[in-house]
Specification:
Keywords: Membrane, Transmembrane, Transmembrane helix, Transport. Belongs to the cation diffusion facilitator (CDF) transporter (TC 2.A.4) family. It is found in: Membrane. GO terms for molecular function: monoatomic cation transmembrane transporter activity. With 317 residues, the chain is an alpha+beta fold. It folds into 2 domains: 211 residues; 96 residues, 2-Layer Sandwich (Alpha-Beta Plaits). It has 8 helices and 4 strands. The protein has a 4-stranded mixed sheet with strand order 1-2-3-4. A hairpin with a 2-residue loop joins β2 and β3. α3 packs antiparallel against α6, α5 packs antiparallel against α6 and α7 packs across α8. The radius of gyration is 27 Å and the shape is elongated.
Length: 317
């Protein structure tokens, strides 16, 4: 991933963090004063979305720091632990809200939330849609292969706000119509949203652990990368290729052999072309490190070097 693409992706992640944290504060405050358990649960769901955006930001920074392995490892470990802590906190609060809403249903509900809760939910839905449209278009610009999966995932996040809206609306209508049993729709919606929050917290924990562990690509997956490098003019052999997964992205380390008689500048140019080819063909490759070695044909050929071969072409293929 180029520096410009990383910066755009980080901007999108920050917008998600700030936007969802703002929504969490808004809905949490209004939910508390309006007496809506569904809105408080929806506020927690927005907080879980912010934690998810933070996890994405951590992966992007890890990709940017990948050239400095020691620094990257320390940074990744710190950010992974932070994400896991936030996820566990979400799981704990989600359980508390689910239990609190269930107790309200068990002991009975004697009042409906105030109408201000509906206004807060409506504002939340509009802001969520704006954030979704921005990040969806951004991912299309970055040619992300996960764009459709992201679209469906973020659309599912709307279920929380929609459930809160109908829960609060039903309870308010019950207040005006005299059907007090409709009061239970608000805590029922709270239980439903709490389950969504628990699901999000579990996914964040598992993804953080998965992303912290560097998974080497299977041999059949790395073969396409090797074949791409071998097509570059000047590459005599691919001595070694390591492709490591970092979340949705891949870091590639390659050792190639070139003609030992070429200049350093020519070797650098071959490495640049190989890196460019990999990142252009494989959009999930975030960075490529190439080490250039002089080609050694081995005994007995290395002992039979003819000085008259200096006039041969410098780039071999």
């Amino acid at each position: 991933m180029t520096e410009e693409r990383v910066q755009k992706a980080e901007t999108g992640a920050w917008i998600g963090i700030i936007g969802n944290l703002g929504l969490a504060v808004l809905k949490g405050g209004v939910g508390y004063f309006s007496g809506s358990k569904a809105l408080i649960a929806d506020a927690l769901h927005s907080a879980s979305d912010a934690a998810g955006s933070f996890a994405v930001l951590a992966r992007l920074r890890n990709a940017r720091l990948s050239s400095d392995e020691d620094r990257a490892h320390g940074q990744t470990k710190s950010e992974t632990l932070t994400t896991i802590f936030l996820s566990v906190l979400l799981l704990a609060i989600g359980c508390e809200i689910a239990i609190h809403s269930a107790k309200a249903i068990y002991h009975g509900v004697d009042a409906a939330p105030k109408a201000t809760a509906l206004l807060a939910i409506a504002i939340s839905i509009v802001i969520k849609e704006v954030i979704f449209q921005y990040k969806y278009r951004l991912r299309k610009q970055l040619s992300s292969q996960q764009v459709l999966a992201y679209a469906w995932e973020r659309r599912s996040d709307m279920y929380a706000s929609i459930a809160a809206f109908f829960g609060v609306l039903g309870a308010i209508l019950g207040n005006y119509s005299g059907y007090t049993y409709l009061y239970y729709l608000d805590p029922l919606a709270g239980v439903f949203i709490a389950v969504l929050v628990l699901r999000m917290g579990y996914r964040l924990v598992t993804q953080s652990i998965h992303n912290h562990m560097e998974h080497l690509l299977q041999e059949e997956d790395a073969r396409a990368l090797i074949q791409t490098v071998q097509t570059i003019k000047g590459v005599i052999a691919v001595d070694e290729l390591r492709a490591r997964e970092h979340g949705h992205y891949v870091l590639v380390d390659v050792k190639i052999s070139v003609n030992p008689r070429i200049s350093i500048q020519e070797g650098h140019e071959i490495a640049r072309l190989a890196k460019q080819a990999l990142m252009k063909r494989f959009h999930h490759v975030s960075d490529v490190h190439i080490h250039v070695n002089p080609y050694d044909p081995g005994y007995p050929y290395k002992n039979n070097v003819d000085s008259d071969t200096d006039h041969y072409p410098t780039l071999l293929h």
